## 1
Amino acid sequence: MSVITPTPGRTVRPSRPARTSRRAGTGGLAAALLSPTLLVLGLVIGYPVVAALRLSFQVSSEGIDPSTGFVATTTHYGTGNYAAVFSDDRLLRPWWNTTSFALASVTLEVLIGVCMALVMHRAFRGRAFVRAAVLVPWAIPTAISGILWKWIFNSQGVANSLLDTQVLWSSDGFHAWLAVVIADTWKTAPFVGLLVLAGLQIIPGELYEAARVDGASAWRAFWRITLPLVRPALVVAVLFRLLDVLRMFDLPYILVGPRKHSVETLSMSAFNEMTNLRFGSAAAYATVLFVYIAVVALAFVKLFGADLLGRGTRSEP
Amino acid sequence: MSTLPLTRSARRGATGGRRGATWARRLGIAAVVAYCLAPFYWMVVSSLRRPGDQFSNAPLPAPVSFDNYMSAFDAKNGFGQALVNSLVVAGITTAVTLVVGIFAGYALARLHFRGKTLILTLIIAASMFPPIILVVPLLRLFTDIAWINTYQAMIIPSMSFALPLAVWNLTAFFRQMPTELEKAAQVDGCTPAQAFRKVVLPLAAPGVFTTAILVFICAWNEFLIAISVVNDRQMMTANVILSLFTGQYKYDQPFGTQMAAGVVVTLPLVVAVLFFQRRIVDGLTAGGLK
């Protein structure tokens, strides 16, 4: 069947000239179909980002109004918010926490995720159950997992009992940082594993057979075949995870708490300023985070050539 | 199916080295499952202890007790109302997102037009925005227009992450559908719009369903927006109210009650994951977004 059909199919293909007029028609249709999405994204993302930028340059100062004698808030445009944010270590500490969380969590997640994918790769019985189990950490809301890990890391909790230690995990300091890394790794390493597994499954089995015939060890086959071919999937997974950790808020906020030196991320700093109604300063923190994430994303795509669009547009067989 | 016992017996006859590898793999699978489920198991176990046994670290609750569940739904916590709020916010976000996103997904997957790459780039960039930069100015705006403590104040900002996710997934699904049917419909005299409505949409139902599950789970899990724009306990979502549970005394955190409430919040998702694991994995890996 498949041998015969292509030949007539190629000759009877729809006439070429009609295509230009069809394209003009689809252009209008595309605009009509896309406009609701673009409108909503413009309203819920475009407008707030511009508003945040504007807000970050709005400096409020309180002073006595000379005519009335009351305290009055005056605003003017300037770089005062940024100057305040960049002075002393108000920025450096949350920036370092954000960055170190990203580096540590993503490294662990990739290592564990790749191992999980390799284990799950071969067909086995109970596959559906394992796949469901792997999805459980992903499906649990971050806020709930924050409370769950706070309970596990409680001073009288199961972590101290298993490790036979008396560590105050969720107070502050290095242990609190480590607790956040562990909780985040638990929740998202399976997600990395699933993305890598999808990459593994498109590697043709013949490659491994050829390698075996050529006398390559399993270890060598992993480095020379598996890793290079799974790289595109891995790069995309790492990029998504990296950008996700950089904006982390829920987990340290719930697991450890607000205004904790060792776990406060840039998102938390901005949130803290916002809840104290210092909107200008909050917007400055948020803008710094936004620019940082954009720079990291661009650098990552340039360095590793993450093929983001290919995944969405590629037609599956 | 019928060949399975045969191949297994064949494998059993294989060398000892291969049998060792099989056992190593089983062990690996067990480790993966244990890694993923152990903390969740601990949540369930802790929730089923008597409040007095809260600090017991025994692997099973000695007398099983539902006291924690009773106190989770205690009127003072407002947990029942919070569940309704979560359902309303996540449900409406999912519905609106799908209605808006389905057209964009179809256009991006099927139609040829200029600027497609740009729009795809915009949509994927949109999904990478830190939500805090949206929340700061929106909180101020919502304060000005008296939208604090309303559903729309939670639903509309949630679209910022839900819509890119939905469009991305739907695009992938429409791509996978064979084009022949649409072409046949157009040959039969359908306009592209008619072909979409009468042929593509019914066929895309499974993809739409998968996208709905993914979007719903993400919306259900949202925390930052919900905690920012609501300060009335009556309007809080389950995630927010759970983090604010207080015990009898101000400083003792009622972990047992929180674990019980956590199980209630998570259980629908775990059930959905059990039933739809295949679809969810397909959606996650096609979309590649969280």
## 2
Amino acid sequence: MKENTKVYWKGLEQLTNSPDFVQNAHKEFPEAPPEENLDHSRRDFLKMMGFGVSAVALAACEAPIRKAIPYVNKPVDLDPSVANYYASTYINGGDYCSIVVKTREGRPIKVDGNALSSVTKGGTSAQVEASVLSLYDNDRLRAPKSAGKNTAWEDLDKAVIAKLTEINAAGGQIRIVSNTVLSPSTKAAIDKFKAKYPTTQHIQYDQNSHFGIAKANEESFGTAMIPSYDFSKAKVIVSIGADFLNAWGSPIENTKQYAITRDAGEGKNDISRHFQFESNLSVTGANADYRSQLKPSEEGAVVVALYNEIASLAGRATVSGGVEKNYLKKAAQELWANRGKALVVAGSNDKAVQVLVNGINNMLGSYGVTILPHLPVYFRQGDDAAMANFVSEVEGGKVAGVIFFNCNPVYDHPMGDKIGAALKNVSLSVSTSYKEDETASMTAFLAPDHHYLEAWNDAEPKKNHFSLAQPAITPIYKTRAAQESFMIWAGESNVDYFEFVKNNWKNRFFKGGNFQSFWDKCLYDGVLEMPVDAASVSFAGNVSAAASAIAANYKSGAAFELAIYENGTVGNGSQANNPLLQELPEPITKAVWDHYVLISQKDAAAAGITNPESKTRYANVTANGKTVKLPVLIQPGLAQGVLAIAIGYGRTKAGKVADGIGENVYPMVTMTNGSLNFSAAEAKFELLSEDYQIAQTQTHHTYMARQTVIREFKSIDVKENPEILTKSFAPKVATWLDEDHQVKPGELSMWKGHDYKNHHWGMAIDLNTCTGCAACVVACNVENNVALVGREEVINRREMHWLRIDRYYSSDAEVTDWKGLEEASDNPEVVFQPMLCQHCNNAPCETVCPVAATTHSTEGLNQMTYNRCIGTRYCANNCPYKVRRFNWFKYHDNKQFEKSNVAQTSDIGKMVLNPDVTVRSRGVMEKCSFCVQKIQAGKLTAKRERRELQDGEVTTACQTSCSTGAITFGDMNNPESKISKLLKLRPANPDRPYSIDKIADNPRAYTVLEEIGVKPNIFYLSKIRNKDSANA
Amino acid sequence: MFLERVPKTSNKFEKMTSDSRFVASALQPDTKPDMTKHTQLATLKFTFLSLLLTVLCSISFAQDIPADPAAISAGESLFNANCKTCHRVHQKLIGPALADVYNRAPSIDWIKSFIKNSAGLIASGDAYAVNLYNEYNKTQMTAFSGLKDEQIMQILAYVQAETIKGPPVAAAPVAAAGGSGDAGSGIPSSYLNAIVAGLVLILVLLVVILGFLVSALKRFLDQKDLSAEDKELVHSPITSNSILKSAGFSFIVIFFVVALGFKALINGLFSIGVQQGYAPKQPIAFSHQIHAGQYEIQCQYCHTGVTKGKSATIPSVNVCMNCHNQIKEGALYGTAELSKIQAAYDNNTPIQWVRIHNLPDLAYFNHAQHVNVGGIECQTCHGPIQEMEVVRQHSLLTMGWCIDCHRKTDVNSKGNAYYDKLVELHNKSSKSAMKVEDIGGLECAKCHY
């Protein structure tokens, strides 16, 4: 039997076993950081004493008077303490998600995916989950402003209309600049404005531009559009630099579809095969079966090479150029073998590259199957050329009036500086941004729009797929819908945007019957979908011209190239002021609150950089005429000779949370072949002597052996020997019976084991479909009022997240094969493992608590009673999974944590707190509760309706947020539940069906650290990497 | 002055005086939890009394009053539900003590008609009724037209049984029904005093005897040949000063001071955060006694959230206005208080009530679970709310109080399919009814999360 001999490591420190790592890994708790001077004087003692005595005296007095304030006129459908749900739409520029908003007493407190949408299908992302806190951002505009002072809407309107009339009379040019506008009604409102002021042009741009794809499709098929992709139909997926699970195309939709192809069930082998060719290790690359490195300048050449490989297989003419890469031939062969079920995508924004990709997909017969050109998406309507033209116009003084509609080009457009400088000479400048951001602060008038959760709106993310947004809260501040502003400025009399949207829907989509019931249904569902006629396309792109353009435009050879990428946390930076995203460990680097330049291991070694335990140095990186100073972080998997920096940082006017973190690298983006190019062919790297420590969680909470923590198999091995799934690691415990007698660890116990008569809650996490996107972490934070502790405390290893995603690098090399390991660490394989309280049935934490603050329930939950906890931390010490978190400080109402813990330190922020979950205080332990508040609520609903609890009624926050369905939660006592069926659960003893001991017959199911016999209620399904053999 | 049950117009309210409020009878829920106990008690007592009864019956003219235990227990619950607010058997309350009323009153039929319509009887000029009316400050008894003759007979049966029992014995259930303390506990205080006096006497005697012993010992020691030091020691006089300075005395004083201090501290600590009896002044002097008591408005009419969610909800002003659109003057304060509601409604300013029941944030309590699913009466926790002019916190609201109830209370599983499996499993292993405790009602994460 071949054992699973892979080597796993969390960070390079662990691979090299650096002394710092060893020291920290062996300590239960990090060393206490230096506190303030602890030598208290006698006077201090007396002060403390005096305070203590008076505090006790006060506490013994009458409790403070608390008020209960009912409504004057209670809305009929709203009951205090009962949550209401509204279907709505998350719109942030071109980013789209159909959502359901949970409100309590009229306050949105949580955003979930809307399963009725066929676009996002109930999926969400970290940014969508976090957006609810952006609503309560303390740095939002409170009222309209004119010339830096708060003003009244009437006065602002008068002034703006006067200016517009003046410009119009003089025939001056007016521009409306925005990110992608998904909303048909908004476009109609803008049209009204355009009709009044005919010189108006509406220019759209995207931070993460896909303009090249649209241009390529125009050349290939005659229409400039971006098609829908259907990853679920693909057996072989090849991505060249496209981070389609995180930042490319429609990530939520892609993730949903991708997961379908990656579902390995009970170890079946027909999962998709995914090749990734990329420079920086992305979330998508981390999920790939075969990953190959390239330099940004080689992206085009790799596409050319792939084209040629397939063309020769197809017997067609090849084009000139190309470069050889690992697995490229294999990828081509498999694509060809699976033609009609294959998909090739490329991240490049260059028209020439995308024309070749279209050519490849055309040869593979992808159109109509995995690519749906008849179903274009509208996520990215930005026009790089038009925007560049606008910049030159505004610089040349040709624009008299400009309205920035919910966009921030001064920050997030490569030529933002130029726009900012030219604005002084523009006669009328208005921003509708809901914050006084980098652009808005340079405009004369600020007409703040609502946050999307306060506003009516609609969206068309995909052809004939419509979506409604409805307000979940009355506007908090004196803001006004930007669409209403446009219509008021256009001199319209009836400007209620709600009525406008409604009428728009009535005129466009309503097909007879009762309009009110049609409207109510649309509002209830949140979406309206209409069929689209299928149409075939014929490819007419000029591939050889494209190939020569690539050859002409990209030259490699510089010592360093720069790759600019969008990470999975702050994204494009528009939500950077959201601490939920800042403190979310980046899926790959596991860094929080920090901006850094990534460097490959070999380059780091050459430059003499090590960063043990995140301690590093600053470096200056210069590219395309711009220099940024950032700390250096070594990234395994990053191609040699490439530096990588994320966009979304370096905000200066975002607000207290984001300002001053990192540098803005948008200005490093240049135009290549008519569209934005997120790389630089030549970058200068200059290491500085200044030290820095990056807040990085990657080696935090390192725990015992790896063998039963991660279980990963190659599909070829499973195919050859299915037993490997169950037998590769089966720990046994010797007993006293005789020398050879051994039993499974769970079978030996000091206890007889309980019966859970009612429910037995359990969870299954599929490592094969988990993409590591971390939406679940944010969802958990929001649902459970988890405190955000800030950079310093993360460095002290005191982050509070109940759910973490452990990211392991791995290699096939033998443990003793040092050379092999070193090579492997250059391009390691990656496994993500969500790690949360395992709710052990024989929980080690429970037995050591001196005050019984952590106990077990009759439903299998490991309960944590905050008020009983005295903070000995024995439980955390004894937890084999290191999932318990200690409140080192009072994080709520504490000025010290104002920046990070927005939700618990300000009156506005507190509106987001979940009223059903206690905000923990200093000195108590906390951990995942399996969302016990949701369990209790689900049970109560069933009891009130006098019926049994149905499977699927109770969900945890992480499960709901998971786009891939990797997390399954349910009642393991119910044989019909999804979890019972997925894991094929059966009671260990048929006479005791309700016993804690359940056996999972799914061969992929295992429990982490099985050998210690704690009997967790969380099962993992082992990862199957769809590989042929070790070195192929 | 005569009152109708549900006056709709304001002029009727005007005439209402505070002492006429008693006419609204007690609500049933008040006494329900105690009923089973009483029934058992009554049954036990019955066997003891039945002999006595047979003798007594012959001399009373109330032969037609039933004497079977079923009638008595039915009568007891009827009495508790309808009469107890104003009447006791052996005690004069708002109305007369009812002991021996079947012999005292003109006839059983007279009693029936008085209960059904006392006002009519008084108006008809019935001498006994008019006398009674005048004797009790012209307070009108509510008309119980809904009571049937046989029910009145059952009440009389209960009254008769209690009358025969006599006051000292009969006092016990009444006191217990009031919910105060354990009636059967301990020795009367006069005995205690006697015991203390006896103990003091014994102690004094002991002191005297010890004094004799000391002098005897001294004399004995004097006869011996002692050193000068020892002599001094033996003859050192016992003065108040020497006692005060002695180690034993200091120890006793310190011990008592410390013990009492400790006791006071512990008591003080246990009372922190307990606000039983908290009855703050509210911005509007709303009387539950009038609304829930006198007019018997259902609690859920105003507290709409009680079956739906965690919060029972304090009614919004528009709920008040449902009735007070019409009723503009109150019984107690005229227009003074009601105008505040009108003002809040007109100005769209919410009323800031003072919260009485404050659970700490760390405890989760859900009204729907208890009222809707558990079928618990409001009064079980909130006390006789229908009698409260100003609402006060009736229960301790401590964790011990919650736990105690979860231990004692049967799960209301009847007709609720959610519990079917649990009841089946429970019945396999136990013969007693399924308590809340048995299905995890004592677990931490049921209330703390």
